[in-house]
Amino acid sequence: AKETGKARCLVYSPRTSGPPEHDISLEAAMFQAVREGEFLLYYQPIVDAATRRIQGFETLMRWKHPTLGMVPPVRFIPIAETNGLINLLGAWALKAACVQLKHFEEAAKRPLYISVNISPRQFRNDKFLEVLDHALAFSGMSGSQLVLEITEGTLMIDPVHAESILVKMAERQARIAIDDFGTGYSSLAYLKRFPISVLKIDRAFIKDLPDAPKDGAICNAVLDLAKHLDLSVVAEGVETEAQLDYLDRRGCQYIQGYLTGKPMPAHAAMAALKEDLYA
Ligand code: C2E
Ligand code: CA
Ligand code: CA
Ligand code: CA
């Protein structure tokens, strides 16, 4: 295990208790991982529910540790959020994703978009707009091809500040998606106040479809709300044909989930786009 003089966050994994490699300081290992280039980006297709054609990709961060293997984001993102490393990782992800979109479009021979998760701390960082502008300028990508995924919580921490940032994002034509929609403790008032374009229905409401009447009612309500507010909807975590069929029939236009594509490395996403071309 790597030891440093820095304050450490010892992360034990009770569910995978066993080899001593798990007793390492994940936080210390993260700083090392940044230097070693162990962080990668995976891309998950977001498809049109009716045609199943790829419209864009969500960027999902991966950490490939030499001995621990793939460390899931649910383990390292919260640490990065606490120690501030998320600002560095997030800036890298945003820029790399924008550059990758250009390659995706060349493979697809049509316009696509890229969706990037922005954590609360990153969103509140003073440098965030600079980071955004740099990623757009460096990649030569239009802001209109970028979707930034934030949660209700991110907006609620400081709504006045959030509004000013969102307005500046809108000036750059970047779209805002509300991630995990319906799982936060917030009112719907922010949908009126903020310039939001996309609602992503959390997998929690999708996973038991089509046989869960309450989940179905919630999905219908979200779709109805989105229609009247002129927002797009992406259903997350779609794993079965029955779920896709249910959502498609109710007018959900976009789908993301294992059924239509798992998160994958860039080269595999390129291959998926080329297949799409001849479909
Ligand atoms: P999220 O943004 O809600 O991302 C969706 C998660 O659902 C991803 O987990 C994805 O792999 C998973 N998923 C997609 N389709 C299915 C499906 O059909 N079934 C199931 N069971 N799961 C599905 P992942 O990649 O482990 O990421 C977890 C969370 O970590 C993300 O949730 C996001 O909150 C965070 N995260 C990942 N990458 C980044 C990043 O670059 N920046 C930030 N700030 N957060 C990230
Ligand atoms: Ca997301
Ligand atoms: Ca989500
Ligand atoms: Ca989620």
UniProtKB/TrEMBL annotation:
Residues covered by the EAL domain: 23-277
Domain of life: Bacteria
Parent sequence residues shown: 264 to 542 of 554
Spans through the membrane: none
Name of the protein this chain belongs to: EAL domain-containing protein
